[in-house]
Amino acid sequence: MKFIFLTLLIISGITYSRSDRYEVVGPADKVFAVAGEDVILPCSVKPNISVVDMKVRWSRLDLKDFLVHLYEDHDDRNTEQIQSYRGRTKLNHQELQRGDASLELSSVQVSDEGRYKCFIQSKSWTDDATVDVSVEAVGRPPVITVDGFDHSERLHLQCESEGWNPEPDLEWLDSEGVRLSSETAEMQRNTDGFSMKHTITVQHRDDKIHCRVKLRHHMLETLIITSSKSFNPWRTSIILSSVAVVLIVIAGILLAAFVRKTREHDELQNENERKKRERDQLQIETNREQQERDKLLEKKDRIQQEYNSLLQDENQKIKQGEFFF
């Protein structure tokens, strides 16, 4: 029993010694990256020892541990790497000699945001560390469009912006900087980040309306002038547009009626021509049959004449024979 207990203590001491000697360490805090720029994901072995002869595997824990970068047998082996990371990952082989297995990720994308695992394996031990990455993306400047104009001289505005990460704040402001409430607000997220669409209705007395998008220390803003002087052109434009739409619809109806009438006329004309061809063909056949009947009658008359002539000759010969007798 003493021998077994002593063996367990020795094994425990060896395990503790190795764990204390070889440890994979990542950053204590989340790594912040900016879309379009490069970022370093820290990972190293403590105390510093060379990992040149070891296996270094970076993967995405939040994507079923898919491969991000693999170093093995003194070379990078990324044949099974996630397609979106192709050509964007790099390990500094010189730093591997100092135990630094940090991953350099270039041209950061919003889709790179997530949890990564740095796994290092030698012939005698393995360990790993996690790295959380947050990607900040400044989207496109907001775009204000006129969505409508009612009879009360109220202007319906819409503001859109996309490509932000994380989710930003979109707000309307009047000319005095007072915040206005959006009537509707839509928010969507895809691989490129967040996109927003907010609407608002303003009165003619609000001469300037701002649409502002804010994300931490970033801010983009667009201004539209909605004074009374600018309302008339909008109203005239909308009226003219409505009239133009009505005229286009009427023209389309007339064109469709003309095309249908022309098609019906062409079909009727083709039908008449077909019937005329049939009548002409029937007349030709009738004439041909009449000609054949006429030829038969002529032949019959000729045969009858020949027969009558022969009959007369025979009668003449008979009369002459009786005379000589």
TrEMBL record:
UniProt domain Ig-like: residue ranges: 36-134, 141-232
Region (Disordered): 265-298
Domain of life of the organism encoding this protein: Eukaryota
Keyword set, alphabetical order: Disulfide bond, Glycoprotein, Immunoglobulin domain, Membrane, Signal, Transmembrane, Transmembrane helix
InterPro entries with a match to the protein in the record: BTN3A2-like_Ig-C (IPR053896), Ig-like_dom (IPR007110), Ig-like_dom_sf (IPR036179), Ig-like_fold (IPR013783), Ig_sub (IPR003599), Ig_V-set (IPR013106), IgSF_BTN/MOG (IPR050504)
SMART domains according to UniProt: IG (SM00409), IGv (SM00406)
Signal peptide as annotated in the record: 1-19
Location in the cell: Membrane
Residues passing through the membrane, by range: 238-259
Residue runs in coiled coils: none
Pfam families: C2-set_3, V-set
Coarse class of the protein's main subcellular location: membrane
One GO MF term: signaling receptor binding
This protein's name: Ig-like domain-containing protein
Taxonomic lineage of the native organism: Eukaryota, Metazoa, Chordata, Craniata, Vertebrata
